[in-house]
Design goal:
Layout lengths: L1 H10 L3 H7 L8 H20 L3 H17 L5 H24 L5 H17 L4 H19 L8 H17 L3 H4 L2 H20 L5 H24 L6 H12 L1 H11 L11 H15 L16 H17 L8 H6 L5 H14 L1 H23 L6 H10 L7 H25 L6 H16 L3 H20 L6 H21 L2 H4 L3 H20 L7 H26 L5 H30 L7 H20 L18 H15 L3
Helix pairs in contact: 3-4, 3-8, 3-21, 4-5, 4-8, 4-22, 5-7, 5-8, 6-7, 6-18, 7-19, 10-11, 10-13, 10-14, 11-12, 12-15, 13-15, 13-27, 14-15, 18-19, 18-23, 19-23, 20-22, 20-23, 21-22, 25-26, 25-27, 25-28, 26-27, 27-29, 28-29
């Protein structure tokens, strides 16, 4: 029995693959499902009715790009997120169509476009999608015979993106600020969940969910604020409400440190925060009774009582100060300054050039291969390389494997469609059904998204090529070739694939944590609170990025995945140090003993030593035990730092 168990364990798929294939728990976005079905099927209906099915297919291709890029919540952001990438996609298909059938000229141009696409992808989320569509549509334009004149394919693609944009904005007049209010209310509810989890094993998970919610809320509101000229009353109100919840978050950290003798945190605290969430979502204003909270039983609950009371005042304030949010968050940079920073990030960043060169090498090799070896409909090889090498989809290695598996699954869906469904009006209901899978499965994971997109692209390609069932086998071969090129030229040839910088990123986060400890305890009570809140928010955002980087590394095969798994407990330990620092500061603000400068300096030095050891691999020096005694004011914080140092001492 034991021998069979060991044999089964050896035959089981590796953990990095099973983790990538496990579907994520995400609700089905029914509104996006309906939009995708209409946006992709309606152009085919119009094309069929007018006798121009190829035109309808190009419009649907543009709509497909819009459906994939429609990921924002706020309506103003959706305009930007959909429209800008569509313009880059139109430029890509224009450039690609100019070199269709041009041999080595097409190879050179697509390689250059790949370099530009990879470099601009490092600027931000919208730039990443724009770079993706620039290259994808250039590959399509160079590989498929498109209708003339030269301006028609870009116009048809833009029309498809416009259809998605119109459908996405239909409810804007009725639901203007609803997405923004909903995301801020969601943050308040995440805070309530954190309060309920205080003192329980579920606290760390609730705090991670809250960090993600806070990042999403600030990203949404600040991005909208940076694009508005003047001051929007509704935006100022939401920013003030979001800022007001930060003291509650800090007090929740203090509540986590309450002695167990106090018992669980009274349910009145999370209930009061949920009432505030309802008020935010319904945009209620005017005077309200103070939250019914119990008598504070110590520094932690005293801080929580004051923080919830302050948040209630801000949430129900009729006329928030239009300058308060700017004072706490800083003024948004001018458009010229933001453009300058983006240009510097594009031209001077080593990461930007590295990714651009990797993508250019892979696309160049793909185009050279299909130019030397006759591959039918060879554009699919470069399309596969583009999707696999997308920088923010995860590990290149796992993406290559998942792309192959997803394509195979998508081909199983496409086989009966291409073999049995006749062209004409039957294409419309089939496309309407296939399109619903894209938003429904995209949130489940990369392999699921690939499986959903593959039959849609095959059906649209068939409307332009009329190859029918004969498209299936070449598409599988082309996908495998593209995955192989990505693995060899985009992964194995680059040392950074095997020697990931996750240790350096974690060391930077630990060094920033040392600075946060110094900032938290070197000012008097009540002073520099906005500065501490900004630093803590930035630090938790950086830690969230480190966590995402580690989770991405966990999907890599050994040795990278094994190394990331061994260091994962240290990431959690650093997050706990930041949380404990915040909690200790809040307790000091409300009557707990004030730590001495020697204690603060000793803890900061321990963290600095830990960061240096992570960078260099040297042994950690002994901590100053004479300063950090078990009964010192920072005893709990020192305990968390000691735990982190113990984990680091056991690192591989």
């Amino acid at each position: 029995m034991a021998r069979r168990s060991r044999a089964a364990a050896r035959l089981a798929p590796p953990s990095w693959l099973t983790e990538s294939l496990r579907p994520k728990a995400a609700p089905i976005p029914w509104a996006a499902v309906a939009r995708a079905s209409v946006a992709l099927a309606a152009p085919l209906a119009v094309g069929t009715a007018t006798g121009r099915p190829g035109y309808g297919a190009l419009v649907s291709m543009g709509a497909l790009s819009g459906v994939i890029g429609d990921t924002a919540d706020a309506y103003r952001m959706r305009v930007f997120n959909i429209a800008v990438p569509q313009l880059f996609g139109a430029l890509g298909v224009l450039l690609g169509s100019l070199v269709h059938g041009a041999g080595w000229t097409a190879v050179a141009l697509l390689t250059l476009i790949a370099l530009v696409s990879g470099m601009i992808s490092s600027i931000g989320a919208v730039a990443s999608v724009s770079g993706l569509l620039l290259l994808l549509n250039a590959v399509v334009g160079a590989g498929l015979p498109l209708p003339s004149p030269w301006w028609l394919p870009p116009l048809l693609l833009l029309t498809g993106g416009g259809v998605v944009l119109v459908l996405a904005l239909l409810a804007w007049p009725l639901r203007g600020g609803t997405p923004e209010r909903a995301v801020v209310a969601g943050t308040y509810r995440a805070v309530a969940d954190l309060l309920e989890a205080a003192g329980s094993p579920g606290y760390d998970g609730a705090r991670q969910a809250l960090t993600q919610s806070l990042n999403q809320s600030y990203d949404l509101l600040l991005a909208r604020r940076a694009r508005r000229h003047g001051r929007s009353r509704s935006l100022v109100r939401l920013l003030a409400q979001l800022n007001a919840v930060i003291p509650v978050v800090e007090a929740a950290s203090a509540a986590q440190l309450r002695p167990s003798s106090y018992g669980p945190l009274p349910a009145a605290y999370p209930a009061a925060v949920r009432q505030l969430a309802d008020a935010v979502e319904q945009s209620r204003t005017g005077p309200v009774p103070a939250p019914a909270l119990p008598e504070p039983a110590g520094p932690s609950t005293r801080a929580l009582d004051e923080a919830i009371g302050h948040a209630a005042d801000v949430v129900h304030e009729a006329e928030p100060d239009p300058y308060a949010a700017a004072d706490r968050l800083g003024h948004p940079a001018a458009l010229r300054d933001r453009a300058g920073r983006a240009a510097r990030a594009l031209l001077l960043s080593g990461a930007s050039w590295r990714y651009g060169l990797r993508l250019a090498l892979c696309i160049g090799l793909a185009q050279v291969l299909v130019s030397v070896i006759p591959v039918p409909r060879s554009y699919w090889v470069a399309l596969t390389v583009t999707f696999v090498m997308k920088p923010d989809f995860g590990s290149v290695f796992s993406r290559a494997v998942l792309r192959a598996l997803g394509t195979a699954a998508g081909l199983l869906i496409a086989i009966p469609v291409l073999a049995e469904v006749p062209h004409g009006w039957w294409d419309v209901p089939v496309m309407a059904a296939l399109a619903t899978l894209i938003p429904a499965l995209s949130a489940k994971g990369y392999a699921f998204q690939t499986a959903a997109i593959t039959p849609v692209i095959l059906l649209l390609s068939d409307l332009l090529n009329h190859q029918g069932f004969h498209l299936v086998a070449p598409r599988l071969y082309d996908s495998l070739i593209g995955c192989g090129i990505s693995l060899l030229a985009g992964y194995l040839l680059w040392p950074e694939s095997w020697h990931t910088r996750i240790g350096d990123r974690l060391a930077d986060a630990v060094a920033d944590t040392a600075s946060y400890v110094s900032l938290a305890f070197t000012t008097g009570p009540g002073r520099d609170q906005p500065a501490r809140a900004r630093y803590r928010r930035r630090l938790f955002r950086d830690l969230a990025a480190v966590r995402s980087e580690f989770q991405r590394a966990l999907t890599e095969p050994p040795p990278v995945g094994a190394r990331a798994q061994a260091w994962w407990p240290l990431v959690i330990a650093v997050e706990r140090i930041v949380d404990t620092t915040t909690a200790t500061r809040v307790r000091v603000e409300h009557g707990a003993p004030v730590p001495s400068a020697a204690e603060v300096g000793a803890v900061a030095r321990e963290l600095t030593d830990l960061a240096e050891a992570l960078r260099t691999g040297e042994a950690l020096p002994e901590p100053p035990e004479d300063v950090l005694t078990p009964d010192c004011a920072l005893a709990r914080l020192h305990h968390e730092v000691h735990a982190a140092r113990s984990i680091a001492a056991l690192r591989p």
